[in-house]
Specification:
Layout: H1 2-65, H2 73-85, E1 89-95, E2 101-104, E3 113-120, E4 126-133, E5 138-145, E6 153-158, H3 160-163, E7 176-181, E8 187-192, E9 201-207, E10 214-220, H4 221-224, H5 228-259, H6 261-270, E11 274-283, E12 288-299, E13 305-306, H7 312-318, H8 320-341, E14 347-352, H9 354-357, H10 361-370, E15 380-385, H11 393-406, E16 409-415, H12 422-427, E17 432-435, H13 437-441, H14 450-462, E18 466-470, H15 475-483, E19 488-490, E20 498-499, H16 500-510, H17 512-515, E21 533-534
Parallel strand pairs: 12-14, 14-15, 15-16, 16-17, 17-18, 18-19
Antiparallel strand pairs: 1-2, 1-6, 3-4, 4-5, 5-6, 7-8, 7-10, 9-10, 11-12, 11-19, 11-20, 12-13, 12-21
The structure holds ligand C2E and calcium ion (2 copies).
One calcium ion binds next to strand 16.
């Protein structure tokens, strides 16, 4: 649970990190789009102002060059002609040395005006005046060409509305506010378009290097970027989806890995969590311990012990069973080697998966693992189950013969539960047959299958095979089996599968002579008594 929480936390952090990238990028991109658009608008406005002020200057210079400096009719004509060819100019005027307008292109009668402010430009020949036409409530930007002292000057007025943006980037009315000012802040003109409200505003400012006016443009973000709101919504949805996918991946992948039992089993195998338990096999005619069957247990780090039913089928289907068997064999060599080495009459049985028999893998493994071990090959019994169909009977027969040539014995496990048929099994030439618990359970009941047990006993005798009865749980069964000539028994009536230390203690207790170092003679079959300790139960 704690690990799951940790995964979730890591997943969340990963998700946030992985998503904040695209989100930030998208937001910045959208923001930049807006800012670029606003600064382009301000730039454009300053450019237009520079252009028109420049045109006014050209017109004024031209008039001055032609000697226009009075209000006489010829000069007024010249003013009118000049105005005609310079459309941006709204008015041309002659200004007396006192600074008062003497006449304009319309003559000596012209709208009343007052100068609000004046500013120098980078061109020493001209000044900019902000002029109010008092009666019309209009404001103009006047470009005044300076004249020699005491001489009349010429001036050209421009309408501020001409210098400021009137339409938006997408056409339509300008969606914001644009203001042109002198450096001192005096407003030359303002355009306030539709939709200039809203709280997400972008501001851009640009100053004319040549003439000095400053243009400040303020636009609502959604007015700047076409479909800004749609884009933002789409962006948020897309980044939200990416975030969700990343988050789900980060949560589900570790979770699935955790839930994947194979992953967990592989880890446990590498961590040596699979341990051998030993179930004693007892001779019920003498009470001697003949040996043990190794039955695997998964001892988890938290102390819980899991039985083979929970993982053996999975390991069999993936082939991991072979590694498990090798690991168990090595552990048994290490753990039980000394005890069994001193008791060559005792044997140890391993359950071998069918696929371990393929390509003679088992032969190589038995050779390499038990070579140099205290446990002799003659003490090994390899159990092959009858539960599965044996496809290649001939090949299996060859492997069994090779194992027997090494000195090992082979047991047919779960006899009577599979679909191979007794005659088939017999062709394999095994040394031992293990009667399944199912038939032992039937002893003393209605289902009592005396015939099966009797048949197997007869067969075993004829073919010189030994019989081990499995899953013996009570004395009635013990008595019955003994009466029917079965002497090797494995079951809870004597002992369940025991951890290594308990099994070794049991062996030492029932066979103390070997502890004193008495080496026994060569291997003896499970039904022979020499070299085996005795248990009291039988
Ligand atoms: P199996 O080879 O038939 O082993 C005998 C099973 O019967 C064992 O179950 C054992 O604990 C149980 N048993 C023994 N005496 C009694 C009894 O008196 N009463 C009852 N109710 N049960 C008894 P376990 O240990 O759960 O093993 C189950 C199966 O898992 C084994 O059946 C075997 O087929 C497989 N298995 C166990 N260890 C290994 C292994 O290392 N390799 C392979 N390939 N299979 C294994
Ligand atoms: Ca078995
Ligand atoms: Ca069995």
């Amino acid at each position: 649970m704690r690990r799951f929480q940790k995964y979730k936390l890591v997943a969340a952090v990963l998700g946030v990190l992985a998503t904040s990238g695209p989100v930030l990028w998208f937001v910045t991109w959208l923001q930049k789009q807006g800012e670029a658009e606003v600064s382009i608008t301000a730039n454009w406005s300053v450019g237009i102002a520079d252009l028109y002020i420049g045109q006014a200057l050209v017109a004024l210079n031209d008039l001055a060059a032609r000697g226009v400096d009075s209000c006489k009719p010829a000069h007024l004509d010249a003013l009118r002609q000049s105005l005609f060819v310079s459309p941006p100019i709204k008015e041309l005027a002659v200004i007396g040395p006192n600074g008062q307008v003497q006449c304009t292109d319309v003559g000596t009668t012209f709208p009343r005006r007052e100068i609000v402010a004046s500013a120098a430009t980078s061109n020493p020949d001209i000044m900019l005046d902000v002029v109010n036409l008092v009666d019309r409530g209009e404001r103009m930007l006047r470009v005044r060409r300076l004249a020699a002292k005491g001489k009349p000057a010429l001036a050209a007025s421009l309408s501020p509305s001409l210098l400021l943006p009137q339409i938006g980037p997408e056409g339509g009315p300008f969606p914001g506010t644009a203001r042109m000012t002198l450096a001192d802040g005096t407003v030359i003109g303002t355009v306030t378009g539709a939709d200039s409200g809203g709280d997400d505003q972008i501001v851009g400012r640009q100053r004319s290097e040549r003439f000095g006016p400053i243009v400040t443009v303020t636009m609502a973000r959604h007015g700047v970027v076409a479909n800004y709101d749609d884009l933002r919504r789409i962006g948020m949805v897309v980044t939200g989806l990416i975030a969700f996918v990343i988050l789900m991946c980060a949560v589900i992948v570790p979770l699935r890995q955790r839930q994947n039992p194979m992953h967990e089993i592989e880890r446990a195998l590498a961590a040596d969590e699979f341990v051998p338990y030993y179930q004693p096999i007892v001779d019920i005619t003498s009470g001697a311990v003949l040996g043990a069957e190794v039955l695997v247990r998964w001892r988890k780090p938290d102390g819980t012990v899991v039985g083979p039913g929970a993982f053996i089928p999975l390991m069999e289907s993936t082939g991991l069973i072979i590694d498990l068997t090798r690991s168990l064999m090595r552990r048994v060599c290490e753990e039980a080697g000394p005890t069994l080495g001193r008791r060559p009459g005792m044997y140890v049985a391993f359950n071998i998966a069918p696929r371990h028999f393929e390509n003679s893998i088992i032969l190589n493994d038995v050779g390499s693992i038990f070579e140099g071990s205290r446990i002799r090959l003659s003490q090994l019994v390899l159990e092959v189950t009858e539960r599965y169909q044996i496809d290649d009977l001939a090949a299996t027969r060859r492997v069994i013969a090779a194992l027997q040539a090494l000195g090992c014995r082979v047991a047919m496990d779960d006899v009577g539960t599979g679909h191979n048929g007794l005659s088939h099994i017999l062709k394999l030439g095994v040394d031992i047959i293990k009667i399944d618990k199912m038939f032992v359970d039937a002893i003393g009941t209605e289902r009592h299958s005396q015939t099966i047990v009797a048949t197997l006993v007869d067969l075993a005798r004829n073919l010189r095979m030994q019989i081990v009865a499995e899953g013996v749980e009570n004395f009635e069964q013990v008595v019955y089996l003994r009466e029917h000539g079965i002497s090797s028994v494995q079951g809870f009536v004597f002992a369940p599968p025991l951890p290594g230390s308990a099994f070794l203690q049991l062996v030492a207790a029932v066979d103390p002579m070997a502890l004193e170092g008495t080496e026994r003679a060569a291997a003896t079959p499970p039904q022979a008594h020499s070299g085996a300790g005795r248990v009291a139960a039988a």
